[in-house]
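In the current project phase, we have settled on a layout for protein records. A sample record is reproduced below.
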Amino acid sequence: MPDPATTPALTPAQAAALRHVRHLARRDRPAALATITRHLAGSGTGYQPEEIIAAVATHGRLTLNFHPDRLLRDGRTVAEALDREGVYRSQFETGISNGGLTAFPGGDRDRWEATLFGGAYQRPGVLPSERPKYGGLNLLDHADGACPRFGSCHLRLRPKLLGRASFTFGDSHTEPKDLGTLDVFEPVLAALLEATADTGVSLGAAGMDTGTLLRALLCRQERESAEAGRALDDYIEAQIHGELSLDRDVEALVVDPSFRGTDAGRILAGIARRHGFPLHWHDGFELPVDGIDAEFRGPEIPQLAVRVHAEFAGPGEPVHAALIGRAAASVVRDPKRWADRGPLEVTLQHLKQLWHVLVRFGTPAAG
């Protein structure tokens, strides 16, 4: 097992970013604690704030969702880059994203990070490799990870990584105000309880009231039986500061079943064997080509699904993650094939939205 003592120290920029978030969280802690206490009193559970936060520290896991078959700027797939390099890189290094492509100096991602981290990563001399890596806090052990919006597979990180993560309730592109670190988690927990009480929707789990959420957080057995969370919008985002090494920092690799027997699947299995962590398969998401919802992400998505299925699916094959990945790779490698749809960026965005539809409405993979 990797020696924790070999973990490299945070760079000055990374340490400053964590200090800034911790400072803001401490400022907001008293008001957050009052909110938490109010919700706990009305939940009928009898839990105390320190119990909930201790459960987060004990059972919470950071997950980094990714699509293994997407292409980097140099033509390699994400899986191939992980295999060769043994580290997980940020959008500032890879140039790809399953969200917005704005990770460059002066871009939206750069601006959001300047606000969130007090300008720590905008200091002179800070390298792209120092930027944080984005994932989510999987509090309920959802089989599809904390943020399936951003990928069909995920790395589950070792518990020690919680100590060098900052957290926001909601995606950082919305410039959320509820920030925290593991040792000052109250503002994030307060925002989670507020959202659950107001909407009954939290961490991707529709209809979960405050009492049910709290019991799930405290009762490990309930979480272990959890199914896919399908969290497209409701999640606790985590920004992990410092290098992410597969050998040192990863606890498990969880893969979508559509990659069984594919090049990406074989590469991921090899990564798990070489670095000594288990590879798990979650249940996946699939839909028949005529079952793509036309309202959730717009009327263009069912039309795109028909084309993707006609050009890239085998006989009887449903729409699933690997099929969407074949189309996404084709857009990059053979752009003329897609020229009739307009700008390639729009087609890639529509493929992302097709994945969102699959997460929202897909059924577990057959078999």
In short: The longest strand covers residues 61-66. The two ends are 34 Å apart (CA to CA). The chain has two domains: 10-281, 289-361. The chain has a mean pLDDT of 91.
